[in-house]
User: Fold this.
Amino acid sequence: MAHNPSDSDNEITTTKRKLFEHDIHQVLGGREVADVLLWRNKKISAAILIGMTVIWFLFEVVEYNLVPLLCHISITIMLVLFIWSTMAQIFKWNAPNIPDIILQDYLFEDLATIFHRGFKQLLPMLHYISSGIDLPRFLLIIVSLYMLSVIGTYLSFVNLLYIGFLCMLTLPIMYERYEEEINNLVGNVLVDLRKKYKQFEKRYLSKIPRGSVKEKKRI
Assistant:
C-alpha cells in the first residue's frame, strides 16, 4: 500500500507536546524557591530582584571589584546592626534578628534540587538531540547556541548573569500565566521545522545513493 504524504503531515501535526510534563510549580521544586520564582511571595521576590539589581549596578556601572564590595557590604551591615542593637537597649526596642528563611536548610536544598533536576534532564536531552534522531531540534539548538555565543561577545559576564537572573524571575511566571499560548507557539514552530525537514529529506537526502551493505560470512 502506497504511503500517503498527508498521513505523515497529520502525524507530525498531532505530535505537539507540552514543554513540561508536570506543573511549572512542581518543575521548579514545588516549595519556597518555586514560590519566589513564580512570585507567590511577592515581597521576597521583589526584595531579591532589587538586591540583584543593586549588585549588578555596583559591579557594572560603578565598577566595584568583588573583594572591596563584599568588605563594604559587611561593614555597612555590621554598623547598622550595631546602631540598631544600641538603640534597642536605650529605647527598649526589639533587637534585630536574622530572618528565619535565610537560616533554613530547605532553601538551599531546593536550589540544589532545581539545578540537579535541570542538569539531569539536560544531559539525556542533549544526548538524544545530538544522536540525529530529531534533526530539526538539533539544528534549532545549534543555531540558538551560536546566537548565544554571538550575544556573549558583546556582553560582559556580569550582564549575562543579570539577564539570566531576570529570565529566572520573569519566564516561569509568564509561562504559568500563558501556558497554553506558549505551548501552542512552540509546538507550531517545532511542527513547522519537522515538516520542512521532511520536505528536505524527500527532495535531497532520499536521492543520495547508498551502497548496499553485504552481510559478512562467518567462517
The CA atoms of residues 135 and 178 lie 28 Å apart. Confidence is low (pLDDT under 50) at residues 213-219. The radius of gyration is 26 Å.
